[in-house]
Amino acid sequence: MIYIAPSLLAADFANLESDVKRIASAGANYLHLDVMDGAFVPNISFGAPVIAALRPHSKLIFDVHLMINDPIRYIDDFVKAGADIITIHLESCSDPLKVLRLIRSKEVRCALAISPATPVESIIPYLSEIDMALIMTVVPGFGGQALIPETIEKVRTVKRYAVSKGLKLDIEVDGGLKPENIHLATEAGANVIVAGSAVFGSKKPRKVIDSMREIAAEHIYQG
Ligand code: DX5
Ligand code: ZN
């Protein structure tokens, strides 16, 4: 199953509640929430209070992507805010496993992300410990960037490894995804597709989501 995860970063920040409802009724599965601290990445976005404020207004899966240094300090806050999935970056802390296990111990799905500059080999040892691997398809920090094609091979490597070891693992791609390039990601084995500007930026989000789903169904991983 393909899950479409529009990123709140591209929403109308003055009307978050109605914008989230708009993409939910357009058929989104997840709400991708990009938390940026101005240190791990150069940009600052929003934190746990915004997520907590949205929680009562949406049944979407809250997919929280932490682009912050030392995320262990804030796991409790994001759990309390209503996260269903928490993703941390491999590059953001010295002991990712400790943070991932903490997330799991709170009965929240745990995920690990790697930035484009991080080799795929570095995420392999963690795959048996996580619910989802996030392969960044842009340098984290800003929405609206173009997908870096070289990152797609990492998706294929992770997928092949997961299949060979019988691991049940979601693979998420994030950055620059749209109907024109979703086939690259799904063919390589991705099944959770973040799309910020493509979905929130559209006046017809249902059309965008439907066409992403259709194209993905025609371009599934074949090994
Ligand atoms: C980038 C974020 C992405 C981004 C996606 O740092 O993690 O989630 O907002 O937005 P688009 O789809 O516009 O590239
Ligand atoms: Zn993200």
Q: Could you write a compact summary of the structure shown?
A:
With 223 residues, the protein is an alpha/beta fold. It has helices spanning 16-25, 48-54, 75-81, 96-105, 152-165, 182-188, 197-200, 205-218; strands at 3-6, 30-36, 61-67, 85-89, 109-114, 132-136, 170-174, 192-195.
How does this model look, in words?
By secondary structure, the protein is an alpha/beta fold. The chain has one domain (3-218): TIM Barrel (Alpha-Beta Barrel). The chain is built from 8 helices and 8 strands; from the N terminus they run E-H-E-H-E-H-E-H-E-E-H-E-H-E-H-H. An 8-stranded parallel sheet has the order 1-8-7-6-5-4-3-2. Helix 2 (48-54) packs parallel to helix 3 (75-81), helix 5 runs parallel beside helix 6 and helix 6 packs parallel to helix 8 (205-218). The protein starts with a strand and ends in a 5-residue tail after the last helix. It binds D-xylitol-5-phosphate and zinc ion (ZN). Zinc ion (ZN) binds next to strand 2.
Helix-strand layout with pairing:
Blueprint: E1 3-6, H1 16-25, E2 30-36, H2 48-54, E3 61-67, H3 75-81, E4 85-89, H4 96-105, E5 109-114, E6 132-136, H5 152-165, E7 170-174, H6 182-188, E8 192-195, H7 197-200, H8 205-218
Parallel strand pairs: 1-8, 2-3, 3-4, 4-5, 5-6, 6-7, 7-8
Helix pairs in contact: 2-3, 5-6, 6-8
Bound molecules: D-xylitol-5-phosphate and zinc ion (ZN).
D-xylitol-5-phosphate binds next to strand 2, strand 8 and helix 7.
